[in-house]
Amino acid sequence: MPQEQLTADVPPVAAEAAAQAAAAPSPPPMDLNSPLAPLPILQCAISPDEVVKRLDFAARRGRMAGFQREAPPALFSVEAFAAPFEHKLIAAASGQPTRLAFTVKPLSKMIWIYAVTIVLCIWPGTWLTHSMIVSWFPSWYPAAEWVTWAWYLPLLVVPLLWMLPRQWKKCRVEAHADALVQIEKLAQELDATRG
């Protein structure tokens, strides 16, 4: 098909959305072996109260995901997407003109869910597994509980020793990359410059 016909078939709303998606800042490529660079500092000519008002307005319009006013010394926070451990980007204001310094902090909800799940897998998980196997296969499975502990715990713990640090590192890199994208969005909303 000719190019003119392809563009003629695209509705104007879809073409506009595609142009906005192409113009949106993309996160930098992830490198799990590189240390995380420090986050940039933004400088804007408006007061901290005006910063919060503008960002609250942007959040109500769907442009600032997870915006929240924070208690001092922080000013506000927005989401820094990462999976499975969620993070937030926290901004602190200082000086005149207003300088915004950023930090990325993990939220504790998912960390606690992981911890409770692991503990419940160990106990009563080991006991429950042993009781089910003994009740289903009483003729050939040994009744001694230590036999189940001997194979169940290595199957549970050894993969965790490999998986959890890798997941944590990957999650921190994802949160840092998204924090950089969020800072660019903040700079646009506040007419701020890096400083």
Main β-sheet description: 6 strands, antiparallel
Low-confidence stretches: 5-15
Overall pLDDT score? 86
Largest beta sheet: strand ordering = 2-3-4-5-1-6
Distance between the termini: 49 Å
Task: Please give the radius of gyration in angstroms.
Answer: 25 Å
Q: Tell how many strands the DSSP assignment holds.
A: 6
Structural class from helices and strands?
A: alpha+beta
Choose one word for the global shape.
elongated
In N-to-C order, the SSE pattern is HHEHEEEEHHHE
Quote the beta fraction. 5-15%
Helical stretch count?
6
Folded structure, characterized:
The chain is α+β, with helices and mostly antiparallel strands and 195 residues long. The protein has a domain at 110-168. The chain is built from 6 helices and 6 strands, in the order H-H-E-H-E-E-E-E-H-H-H-E. It has helices spanning 3-9, 12-23, 48-60, 108-122, 125-136, 145-190; strands at 42-44, 68-69, 76-80, 87-94, 98-106, 193-194. It has a 6-stranded antiparallel β-sheet. Helix 5 (125-136) packs across helix 6 (145-190). It is elongated, with a radius of gyration of 25 Å. Residues 5-15 have low confidence and may be disordered.
